Model the fold of this input.
Amino acid sequence: MRILIIGCGSIGSVLATAVQDMPEVDRIYVTDQSKDFAVHLIEDLDKAEYIDNENGKLSKILGEIDLAVEAASQDAARRFIPFALENGVDVMVMSVGVFADDAFRERCFTLAKRHRSRIYVPSGSICGTDGLHSASAAGISEVHLTTRKGPKGLKGAPGLAQRGIDVDALTEATVVFEGNARDAASQFPKNLNVAATVSLLGVGFDQTRVTIICDPTTERNAHTLVVKGEFGELKCETHNVPSPRTPSTSYLAALSAVAAIKRILGNVWIGV
Done:
């Protein structure tokens, strides 16, 4: 398999290092806004090559790529996902909050069907997606995601500015958002990709409830998923170690991308 990794941040760097050791992967292409950052990342990865996105260089290698992994931002997802799908390339999306835009999501899903490409969305920094997926085969009455992060993990989110909240001034755990997953994904684009994943698996962006808590006493990113329906009720809690490089991103999110690629490469799928 030949893989293109778009974005060499906290997720892309973990992923590039991991796939280097996978015998099924024979070539890794990486691209990033910062050439120096990307080149430094792959210095010790003999399978990896940097691709400059300027002057159409990326489009020239699409015919050699089996899987493109977006691990950069919602803006990058908007730019690269349709481009890859139109060229028949499978894509893995980490900035899944971009799919809160109904028109963009339907465009991508249609392109995937038309060009026989696949779109993969890893579970990210949350557990319980397998149970939610199973529960969706029958009726679901409630999906509620509660996310708790420290100030570093939420700082800079547009949703905070809209509410005039200075997370550095908080002295106790404070609810900074209460609403649906569509608004959470747009107002906290670097923080709530899990809300989008949960929405796609369950009852949709408008019916999925989201609560975001900023807690100055914690250094972990925690998610609690509650699902109720005909199957019964499930409650899953995840307490994540944040990425040292990007506090808004949990290390588990990067590991979920690694696990997803191993699954794609394998012939036996457990827990489908």
